[in-house]
Amino acid sequence: MLAVRTYAAGEPLRLEELPVPVPHGTEVLVKVAGAGVCHTDLHIARTDLIKVERPITLGHEVAGWLAAVGPGAAPLLRRVKVREGDAVAVFGGWGCGECRECRRGEEQRCASGSSPGFQVDGGYAEYLLVPHPRHLVALRQLDPVEAAPLADAGVTSFRAVRRAVPWLADGSRALLIGLGGLGQFALQYLRRLPEVVVGVREIDPDKIQIASQLGADVGFLAGDEELVFAGMGGPADVVFDFVGNDETLALAARFVAPGGLVSLVGEAGGQMTFSFTALPVEASLTTTSWGSPDDLRDVVQLARRGRLRWSVDRMPLREASAAHDRLAAGQVPGRLVLVP
Questions:
Q1: 71-81 pLDDT, tens per residue?
Q2: To the nearest whole number, what is the mean pLDDT of the chain?
Q3: In angstroms, what CA-CA distances link 134 with 107, 120, 138, 154, 172?
């Protein structure tokens, strides 16, 4: 099978021919329909910001069809209501299944867990080996190529908004920094909450237009930050940073309200000096990585009901390097998906 792999940070991606994996035990084999291209993939391929085990096949945002199952997996498929040939989204936070976090349904927090494209080979390939059927979510009528972004952009932003709900009572204010694939989903989740003023800060005027179409109350371009407080009616009760560099973290600290929340989602390697005065009084700082398996099931359910809008730009797997270049250049209005 064809696979796109990284051997060292900053080196060109390699397109290689690898054996098709054979599932053993509880493993299942997914024939990849599409793998989303995430900024995290760029950070992995081009920097050492994110720890990975190289060489490795990239790709953590994956959907496809169940192609084969190990002997121990067959009796487990009924629990997830999936049969061979079905279209599935792949949950990427693979936990051990035994620890306290896993038993709580929070596999993405498992200390000994692994994830495709990080610790094990991912979905920039024709096939993906998945350790257990519980990591599959049935897509039913959804096109798996179109649904691939749900497995990361959809679920990670859902998780960030869900965890921020205690700060988002009626009349509260939320600011999104960055409106890429994750931010666009987050905006739609926020619009499902009553009476929340939603602002978007972006460097791309086209993304401000998209924000308006998705229901944002106000948009701000880089350089217009002095308008944020006036445009939103005050500081934000929650700031979602979908970029995560030094500049955006500084902006988040500046615009969050006393007692508010800064939710860091982007992995651009930025840092914030934490001290008693780094944030307004009693403000909180948290991170979000993936979501839980239940979060992904909820996201897929929303998509199946037609409650979410997102755009997919398909590119051949062989053009993964060009896809990374496009994303780095800011030429992707929604989500790029690599198709084998």
A1: 999 999 999 99
A2: 96
A3: 11, 17, 11, 19, 37
